[in-house]
Design a protein that fits this description.
Length: 481
């Protein structure tokens, strides 16, 4: 493409050289630059692309987009200065792939918990409605029926637009994607044309990255601030930050709730480990999901589908046939008579939601044994909070490892134990080896009990000293059976 065509929607503050040159590709990793590349120098959390402009030129870059010009400008290389390189990268990636998001009905889902469930169930619902549909999620990306491995909740701008372009080529009409706070803050979604946005909830998470809860909230809110007047913004009215998300949006505003009046309202009539009977906008529906958080997620799916023009009764019929997303309140029944639940809950609020749901169903007729850990090299502040949630809601809590990364697992466990008093510690065990922790939980479980294995859900690995080792909570539980 001609460089000038890639820069159409970018405010160029300064340029050196001609923009009439032809470029062969866009790249923000200097190691992947080849002859004819336009290199976009973005500022990351660990590295600054501006430090690698020289390497990019050596590797063949014929154009550089940056926020600050290098002291020495190379002849026959075009330099473009912009206010935000990450934003420019998103806009350029969209242009490079022919603005694929404008050729799809694209809906983003953001919030702390529930993103994967809502995005995945919308994908499954619209495929069941007969549409070719795409999905961008933490667990796996899909181009209609083709699975594409997911490495991030939201891919980088180039990978993201490439996936969307492949969806367009495959004939997809709809696409649903998780939008992480990192993706908003790092402008990975710049240049995308969203037709709708859904907010789930906001609780403590990613403070190691955002530093404050306020910054985390602002990142989520910016997604809604950037929606157009043609889009819809659907928010969870039961979350105290739900209406905050809509304060400055230009999109059409809607809400959903389990507790009060809303555009999309649900009540739970009955629930068990096998599912729930719901009243959804005055219509009864049986679903194979459990817990208030899932009732809320399903209401968001129902609301979004209706806002996208689908028939209410047909959507409810499909919802009644769907099953839980991999690693999200995934229920396994042991021959020994106890129930095991594997869930991705890795924040205090998510853990509280799952534990509360289990206890409501048990009604005292069985004990809850919770296995939980906290990730290494991540927000240390939530470690004692996670331990307290596990201990206070369980008969016994087993504290263990969960992706220790480059930290000593015992140091993480000590941080968790620091949140417990003497009485709480008496209700807990610490077993650093996650496999042994799961074995112990299953060994002490009796008929009617529930073993909750929380934190990893769908993940099939443990990261120890930077090395990924195969480890799947569901496999470990089945081995115990």
């Amino acid at each position: 493409m001609i460089l000038a065509d890639l820069l159409q929607h970018i405010n160029c503050l300064e340029n050196y050289g001609t923009t009439g040159i032809e470029v062969t590709r866009i790249q923000f990793d200097s190691r992947k630059v080849t002859q004819g590349t336009v290199f976009v120098a973005t500022r990351g959390t660990a590295t600054d692309g501006h430090d690698f402009i020289g390497m990019a030129i050596e590797n063949g870059a014929t154009a550089v987009v940056c926020e600050s010009m290098p002291e020495k400008l190379t002849e026959n290389v075009t330099f473009i200065r912009v206010s935000n390189s990450s934003d420019a990268l998103g806009q350029m990636a969209a242009a490079w792939f022919g603005y694929p998001s404008s050729q799809l009905t694209l809906v983003g889902v953001t919030g702390t918990n529930g993103k994967t469930t809502i995005a995945t169930l919308l994908y499954e619902t619209f495929r069941a409605l007969g549409y070719k549909t795409g999905l961008l999620s933490t667990v796996c990306n899909y181009i209609d029926s083709e699975a594409v491995e997911a490495t991030h909740t939201t891919p980088d701008a180039i990978a993201l637009n490439e996936l969307l372009a492949r969806m367009v080529q495959a004939g997809c009409k709809y696409a649903f994607m998780e939008v992480s706070s990192h993706a908003v803050d790092q402008r990975r979604i710049a240049g995308l044309d969203f037709d709708g946005g859904i907010f789930t909830n906001l609780t403590r998470d990613h403070i190691d990255y955002h530093l404050t809860f306020e910054n985390y909230l602002k990142a989520k809110k910016r997604f809604f601030d950037d929606l157009s007047t043609d889009a819809f913004a659907l928010t969870n009215a039961d979350d105290k930050n739900g209406m905050v998300m809509l304060q400055n949006t230009k999109a059409q505003k809607y809400n959903y709730s389990l507790r009060g009046m809303a555009d999309f309202k649900t009540r739970i009539f009955e629930h068990s480990f096998e599912g729930m009977l719901l009243d959804m906008n005055d219509r009864e529906v049986n679903v194979a999901f459990t817990g208030k958080f899932n009732a809320s997620n399903l209401t968001a799916v129902f609301g979004a589908a209706v806002l996208l023009g689908q028939d209410e009764l047909e959507v409810l019929r499909i919802l009644s046939s769907l099953h839980s997303v991999s690693g999200r309140f995934e229920t396994l029944h042991a021959p020994q008579g106890f129930t095991a639940i594997v869930d991705y809950a890795h924040t205090p609020d998510a853990l509280n939601n799952v534990i509360s749901t289990i206890n409501q169903i048990l009604e005292g007729n069985g004990r809850l044994i919770t296995v939980v850990g906290c990730g290494g090299n991540r927000d240390k502040g939530k470690r004692p909070m996670m331990a307290r949630e596990a201990v206070d809601g369980s008969w016994k809590a087993i504290l263990t490892s969960d992706n220790p990364r480059f930290e000593d697992p015992q140091d993480i466990l000590n941080d968790m134990l620091a949140g417990l008093d003497v009485t709480q510690k008496s209700k807990s065990l610490t077993i650093a080896d996650r496999r042994e922790a799961i074995k112990t939980a299953c060994a002490i479980a009796q008929k009617g009990d529930v073993v909750l294995v929380a934190g990893k859900g769908h993940e099939d690995y443990q990261i120890i000293q930077g090395v990924k080792h195969h480890f799947d909570d569901r496999e470990e539980v089945r081995n115990c059976f």
